[in-house]
From TrEMBL:
Organism (species): Amphiprion ocellaris (Clown anemonefish)
Designated name of the protein: Cadherin-12
PROSITE patterns: CADHERIN_1, CADHERIN_2
UniProtKB keywords: Calcium, Cell adhesion, Cell junction, Cell membrane, Glycoprotein, Membrane, Metal-binding, Repeat, Signal, Transmembrane, Transmembrane helix
Lineage: Eukaryota, Metazoa, Chordata, Craniata, Vertebrata
Membrane topology: Single-pass type I membrane protein
Subcellular location: Cell junction, Adherens junction; Cell membrane
């Protein structure tokens, strides 16, 4: 190495300026360095050459970049290189000095020759280079001959560091059943040697342990799967040893290793499997509904959510009686009872249960169905149970004052167990403190102990206890409700005075309102036995008899039966052709409407209030009128009636009726009554005798004429007659003249006007018939 450095230094001098050429450092300025050198040369030149004057001489440093090997193990100091200037002529007149990093401690220089040596071994990885400064001075005066120049000593690398994995050991995971070439992880090794010098830092990766499952890329350190279908259930953990070697993996290179722990993560590649295909369970029949009666389990080799199992009961024998759920902690199937068990009804149940995964992986569905099936048989165990009543509760009825010892009902209970033990009955004394009832312990019949009073206690609630004869501890209870019925002490009566109506034109045999209907109900056709048939006659005549009182016998179905007699009031009314009410008395009109007593009272109050208002109004009018008359300034006897009608003279007797002035209340003779026809003519008055017989005959004749007068109003009226005797100039002063009618008129057309005129037509029709009959009689006489 020393020979090589010297050779390099020699070649460097030949290439530049030969042995006398100067290598100038880049740091000082060229002009300044040359001026300094020329000045030094001029001052030293006369003494050395012995000549006068100035002479230009070409001078400078002769040196090169220095290298030193790291990790030098020799006994002598390692030669680094040589410094030399062209001013040095070998006469020991030049002294060389060294300063900078490591000067004196690591590096030393021979002041006369300029040789540099390394005093100790160096490590490039600790410090790759050192920067130093060199200077040549006059040995006698210690004056600088050359400006200080800087140079570098590099530590030359050797392969003294192996590759290292700074992040190891590594942990990695890859899904099981992965294909070849699936990425697992990447490892990285670093080499502290100089990557720019040789192959000391070029690393190559290889697997020392872990084949044939995994492979590593020699350049990148990427680890991949090398074997397909690795199963986690077979082997889950793998340890791979990776080596990193420098020098490109060549012989003599340094190597480092690391460990990679690789685990296979789980995928759902295994279905659940029952440990056995048949499960046999035993369940007591007394098990409560909703309780767990058994457990089964299907094992899944997977882990986590891939091992979650769902259990279902295949429809069949046990689907209605049992249910199954999954225990989330251990994935067991828990059988739940849905309905009560009865050993006497069914002693065993057999059904199938499916176990399947909740989360399926579609990649493995081609492997087959991911479920398993097992058969479950449940035997029902017989349990000694209490007796069972045939009804959940009992209801019985008994009449009050029933003699003691009367049986009112019975309860029945039986032992459903295989032993079929006899049952004994008793009454819970807490529910019958007064001992109103007794029960036959064998038959279960319930009877009264004393007389019952409905007015005191209308309902008794007792509890019957049934006990097994061979196991008195097992008992059951049932509630019995006893209703005390009221005996028939009072006969039935009408709730209120019932009143109804019947139409005048009712048909023979038509059924009118029943007594159990509301008051004043309409006549309806009823086929029941409570209807009131009409008498066999040609209708009714309201003028002959308006009200009928019908006795009604009322019977009840009580115990014992009672009866009474009530009276039904029937009114005869006018009706439409369809049977609806047309005219009747005020009460008959209101009753069908269904007016209550309160409504009638309200109507009457309104009428009274209206009458009071009318009376007050009339009284006020009269009072005002009286005050007006009394406040007049003129006496009432002085009032004169003025008429501005101008007459035609004394001979004019038709212009004004002077009789009006004498008596203003006189009615003209040509005025007719408004309630009679104006075309009716009066007949001559017969002669009237003055004796009492004549007067009586006169009145009777006038009364007969008035009754047969068709023009008279259809209501009762008062006729007043004044008889002044025979020969009176004024003749009769009667205001009503009842004369015989010469003109007869047929009123049959009123029947064609509708039902509203039937009454009027009947009145005038009867009068016409009566008049015809009287006329015929007179003609006969």
């Amino acid at each position: 190495m020393l020979t090589r450095n010297c050779l390099l230094l020699f070649l460097w001098g030949l290439v530049n300026e030969g042995s006398v050429s100067s290598l100038r450092p880049p740091s000082p300025p060229l002009g300044r360095s040359r001026t300094g050198r020329e000045h030094a040369r001029s001052s030293a030149g006369p003494m050395r050459n012995g000549a006068a004057g100035f002479q230009r001489v070409k001078r400078g440093w002769v040196w090169n970049q220095f290298f030193v090997l790291e990790e030098y193990m020799g006994s002598d100091p390692q030669y680094v290189g040589k410094l030399h200037t062209d001013l040095d002529r070998g006469d020991s007149a030049v002294k060389y000095t060294l300063s900078g990093e490591g000067a004196g401690s690591i590096f030393t220089i021979d002041q006369t020759t300029g040789d540099i040596h390394a005093l100790r071994s160096l490590d490039r990885e600790e410090k790759p280079y050192y920067t130093l400064r060199a200077q040549a001075v006059d040995i006698d005066t210690n004056r600088p001959l050359e400006p200080e120049s800087e140079f570098v000593i590099k530590v030359q690398d050797i392969n003294d560091n192996e590759p290292k994995f700074l992040e190891g050991p590594y942990m990695a995971s890859v899904p099981e059943m992965s294909p070849v070439g699936t990425y697992v992880t990447q490892v990285t090794a670093t080499d502290a040697d100089d990557p720019t010098y040789g192959n000391s830092a070029r690393v190559v990766y290889s697997i020392l342990h872990g084949q044939p499952y995994f492979s590593v890329d020699p350049k990148t350190g990427v680890i991949k799967t090398a074997l397909p279908n690795m199963d986690r259930e077979v082997k889950e953990q793998y340890q791979v040893l990776i080596q990193a070697k420098d020098m490109g993996g060549q012989l003599g290179g340094l190597a480092g290793t690391t460990t990679v722990n690789i685990s296979l993560s789980d995928v759902n590649d295994n279905p659940p499997r029952f440990s056995k295909s048949f499960f046999h369970l035993r369940v007591p029949e007394s098990s409560a509904v909703g309780s767990a009666v058994g457990r089964i389990k299907a094992h899944d080799l997977d882990i986590g959510k891939n091992a979650e199992v769902e259990y279902t009961i295949v429809p069949g024998d046990g689907g209605a009686m049992f249910d199954i759920t999954t225990n989330e902690h251990n994935q067991e199937g828990i059988l739940i009872l849905k309905r009560p068990l009865d050993y006497e009804t069914k002693k065993a149940y057999t059904f199938k249960v499916d176990a399947s995964n909740a989360h399926l992986d579609p990649r493995f569905q081609s492997f087959g169905a991911f479920k398993d099936t097992a058969t479950v048989k449940i035997n029902v165990l017989d349990v000694d149970e209490p007796p069972v009543f045939n009804k959940p509760s009992y209801v019985m009825d008994v009449y009050e004052d029933t003699p003691a010892g009367t049986i009112i009902g019975a309860v029945t209970a039986q032992d459903l167990d295989a032993s079929s033990s006899p049952v004994r009955y008793s009454i819970d004394w807490k529910s019958d403190l007064d001992s109103y009832f007794d029960i036959d312990p064998v038959e279960g019949t319930i009877s009264t102990n004393e007389l019952l009073d409905r007015e005191s206690i209308a309902q008794h609630n007792i509890s019957i206890v049934a006990t097994k004869l061979n196991s008195p501890v097992l008992t059951s209870r049932v509630a019995v409700t006893v209703h005390v019925l009221d005996i028939n002490e009072f006969p039935p009566e009408l709730a209120s005075p019932y009143e109804t109506f019947v139409c005048e034109n009712a048909k023979v045999g038509q059924v009118c309102s029943a007594v159990n209907l509301l008051p004043a109900s309409s006549c309806v056709d009823m086929s029941g036995s409570h209807g009131i048939p009409l008498p066999h006659r040609g209708g009714f005549r309201r003028r002959l008899q308006e009200i009928y009182f019908l006795p009604v016998v009322i019977d009840d179905n009580g115990y014992p039966p009672k009866s009474s007699t009530g009276t039904l009031t029937i009114r005869v009314c006018g009706c439409e052709s369809d049977g609806s009410l047309l005219t009747c008395s005020a009460e008959a009109i209101f009753l069908p409407v269904g007016l209550s007593t309160g409504a009638l009272i309200a109507i009457l109050l309104c009428i009274v209030i209206l009458l009071v208002i009318v009376v007050l109004y009339v009284g006020l009018r009269r009072q005002k009128k009286k005050e007006t008359l009394m406040s007049s300034k003129e006496d009432i006897r002085d009032n004169v009636i003025h008429y501005d009608d101008e007459g035609g003279g004394e001979e004019d007797t038709h212009a004004f009726d002077m009789g009006t002035l004498r008596n203003p209340k006189v009615v003209k003779e040509n005025l007719y009554r408004r309630d009679i026809k104006p075309e009716m003519k009066r007949g001559p008055r017969p002669a009237i005798s003055q004796d009492s017989a004549d007067i009586r005959d006169f009145i009777n004749q006038r009364l007969k004429e008035h009754d047969t007068d068709n023009s008279a109003p259809p209501y009762d009226s008062l006729a007043t007659y004044a008889y002044e005797g025979d020969g009176s100039v004024a003749e009769s002063l009667s205001s009503i003249e009842s004369l015989a009618i010469d003109l007869e008129e047929d009123y049959d057309y009123l029947s064609d006007w509708g039902p509203r005129f039937k009454t009027l037509a009947g009145i005038f029709g009867e009068q016409s018939e009566t008049h015809s009959d009287s006329t015929t009689t007179e003609n006969t006489h």
